[in-house]
Write a structure and sequence with these properties.
This protein is mainly α and 31 residues long. The protein has one helix spanning 5-30. The radius of gyration is 14 Å and the shape is rod-shaped.
């Protein structure tokens, strides 16, 4: 099954975004 480009694009964006959120949360706790 081929995903449409919008879904693929969102997948590519969402994965790094969740990683950034995790890192951001850790950094926020340190300060």
């Amino acid at each position: 099954m081929i995903k449409n480009s919008k879904e693929e694009f969102e997948d590519i964006i969402n994965k790094p975004q969740s990683l950034i959120d995790t890192i951001w949360n850790i950094l926020q706790k340190k300060t």
